[in-house]
Amino acid sequence: MALTGETKTVTDLIKSNRSIFLSAIVISGLLNIIMAILVFMYSSEAKEHVYFISENAAYKGVALDSKERNDAEMKNHSFLFMYNMFSHDQYNYEKRVNKALLLIDKPSGMYLYKQLSDAKIIDKYRKYNSRTELEVDSVLIDHNSNPITARAYCKQYAVYSDHREMLPLAAKFGVVSTFRSDANPHGLQLVNFEVIAYDRAIKEIQEKQEKQANEGTNE
User: Which residues contact 204 (CB under 8 A, 6 or more apart)?
Assistant: First the structure.
């Protein structure tokens, strides 16, 4: 009789443990489902924002409607690329160019990098103790093309110790989506980069040269 009682006790214990085990599986499954829903909701919300990181803090961009937000991001991304690729000195040249290369497709980036290398830009910075600065006049977005295209109109300044020269710089490129990262906060990539003429800037240079010529004649 004692043996039978012990057998029943063991059987009851096994049944009890089995119930606890099954309950744990069900609870674990429910928790996983809840966590998956929360992660999805958080990820969906996070995609609607751009995070700007400074040395001291991170700032979340203001959520705008889809088209306006995309235009703002594309313009900011274009500015970020143009600034890093075409504005530097002998000390930050490599750092800025490498930042720019993370914002553009590899063929276009390597082409621009080769152009800068062939022009021996870094050597000229060191020789003349000079630098380049960039002023972005405008970035125009065209939604009627596929991929979306943009045109950036800029003035690049070659700055020397005693003077500076203004050079017109304009470019046309496609804009496509990619993953966001610390190096690419807007989650965009420029493709098919092409330098184009900047007629307005060229006209300003011509007017300035004519003015200087006239002043020299009057003297």
Answer: 166, 168
